[in-house]
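Here is an idea for our session: we take a single protein and study its fold together. To get us started, please write out a protein record for me. Start from the sequence, derive the backbone structure tokens from it, and show both lines together. Go ahead whenever you are ready, and we will take it from there:
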Amino acid sequence: MPDAPGHKKTVNSFDVARLAGVSRSAVSRTFTDGASVSKETRDKVIAAARELGYRVNVLARSLHKQKSDLVGVVAADLDNPFRSEQIDLLSKGLLECGFRPILLRGEKSTDVADLIGSLLQYSVAGVIVTSDTPPEEICIECLENGVPLVVVNKRDPGAPVDRVVTAFEDGGRKAYEHLIASGCRKLAVVTPERSSFSINGRALAFEQAANDGGVPVIRIAWGAQTYDGGLAAAEFVHRVRSEVDGVFCTADYLALGVLDGLRHIHGLRVPQDIQVVGYDDIPQAAWKAYDLTTFSQSRHDLCEATLDLLMQRLENPDLPQQVRVCDVHLVQRATTRGPAGD
């Protein structure tokens, strides 16, 4: 029976072998990394494959190898410049290591365990999670299936999986110290209404440092970790203006909205009337329109540590659980006055 109009016949390795005048095993060796095949045979196979439009069925091949060269990346909030750059670097790094990244978005309405479970159906070589902390049960299932799991900037899920975190407690404390050194004495911390593990940790460390120093601090938890969330939070900062002269925003994306709200809606001068510190050092923080003082957590360091843990786990599955901590550092710009004399 002829093929239906508009439907192209699927090309397989036998078709390529027939056109190239070689055996099917020669076709298989041509598309297998490290396999032995002469240049003449390889050239014939590649030419035939191109002519026929042949593509290797990677998933089918993985059934024979038990593992594919796919690595699942579960991420959320991809509109956030920090997260999008992080995922971009992870994807490039995986490709350089010979793996193919497969991205699944873990938004608020999505169960991260279900996403990881679906990745296991594809015989993935490993999983990286930058969205919500996965439940202990799915972590254990990954371990039992020999699939390395690395979680980034998330709390301990209760299972012995590898983790990469930034020194967010140190960052929160240093944000307090910088505002105090810049002359602030009445503080506020702006954070999303629904905070992640690391975001909440920054806020708590800032508040603890303020409490230890006997400095009043107001928490403004409002909206999402977005520019619009920061714009809305600026309204609350303005309402308590007489009680605040320094603001710590737990993410730069929030801080950009706070800055625009304070300056353009409420007419405040930054840093003359009020000082603002962010966290993340996203590219937009350095734009002249913002010139935001912030704390840098290097996306490159985070990605290098994540990929290193994954590769180590693939090479030696019996290694003990590892936790890598990446440092943060102050990037002073124009939204704070800085210590006297600077």
User: Anything to note?
Assistant: The mean pLDDT is 90. The chain is about 40% helix and 15% strand.
